[in-house]
Amino acid sequence: MSDNRGLIGKLLKLGAAEATDRDGWRRIGRPLDRDPLAAVLREIDETQLPRELSFRNDQGQELRVEAGNRRLRRIVSASVAGSGPAGALLGQQLVHASDIDIDAIGDLLRAFQPGDREVWVHSEQLPQEGDRAQTGVAAAALAGAFSVDLDDRTDANLQHAFEAFVAELNALSSAWIRYEGGKQAAASEPVTDTAWRDRWDAEDVARFQVADDPVGFAPILCILGSGVDGEPHDAVAVLGGTGVVWRLDAAEVAGITARWRDLGL
Amino acid sequence: MSAAEHLEECRNAISGCNLVAFIDLQASMVLSVSAASKQRQERLDMLGALASDLLRLPEDDPLQGLPGDGTVLPQTAIRLSATETTVFVRSQAEPNEALCCACAPDTRVDETIAAARRVLPDIGAND
Known about the structure:
The complex is a heterodimer. A 7-stranded antiparallel beta sheet of chain A has the order 1-2-6-3-4-5-7. Chain A folds into 2 domains: 5-15 and 154-262, Beta-Lactamase; 33-145, no CATH class. Chain A has helices at residues 5-15, 36-45, 84-89, 102-109, 139-145, 155-172, 194-199, 202-210, 253-262; strands at residues 21-22, 25-27, 51-57, 62-68, 71-78, 119-125, 137-138, 175-180, 183-187, 220-225, 233-239, 242-248. In chain A, a hairpin with a 2-residue loop joins strand 11 and strand 12 (242-248). The two termini of chain A are 30 Å apart. Chain A is an alpha+beta fold. Chain B is an alpha+beta fold. Chain B has a single domain (3-125), classed as Dynein light chain 2a, cytoplasmic (Beta-Lactamase, 2-Layer Sandwich). The chains are: A alpha+beta, B alpha+beta.
């Protein structure tokens, strides 16, 4: 079907790389967080020396904070700021965690919605501080207060969950083919349905990944068929440079999608 | 009811649904949309292209279809990303048309498909 395998191989390899810089802004999330607040807090948690962090999404919402020693020191500005406790917090130095209205911080930090596709950060160094090392609120404490798992979406966790899903669907399927780096890496034996086998080459699998997410490569699952449980479907899952396609003769569509989500994908 | 009203009714019927779009697959174009917030044209263009890509028509690629011998077209395409669950449902009466429902990640796909199938004949009747 495809005679452009060289190009698709490059695309798949690019998918495994960090292609997230744009004009000094870096896309955060590993790869995309379901809750952007996790990415914001993780960025603060990874900031040791004092820096001003500016966050923005592709809808124009912005959030600017000062951070250091893995703590939130000050919320400089936020698109969502209004009146009341959250608005009053803007610009204030956060000194002692016990004196700070955590809920108001949460209102300001939630500048981005779970549906936001891209959240970017720009980091600028601030002058070295004297005795302020322990001031502010630790990002880990904020994560605990907001029930956000900072390690929830690490690459390793995603890869582990993806492979668990692949193993489960391999067992359910009548045939499967695995592509890595644009080449077939493995297949069920035997793939007797040659029409099905010929329909799915590396390019067909990779297009599910590159269709709308050319910058970062989050895990994607697609299920094609009648949409009716118990009927035949094809499913494709991609993550980084790996793509797997399955032939499911009696798919439980709702169950498969629920399992994908249960695994945190 | 107008097509736009049917789309809005469908969006309201699906828990967590942010957008419902009526799409011409051959043109890869969103013909009408109901959304919780104003949508950028680039996003609508992307959804039109994605629908057309996933629910390919026979003339696009004679081998592309489901299942088995490649002569049966996919009637639905369910796409799960980290931030969204997107369901595409082809019209039974007009295979060149489809409904796209872009929803929250934890949206139930079976209920979304059912809601889309309920409203598609009504939208087609407004053509």
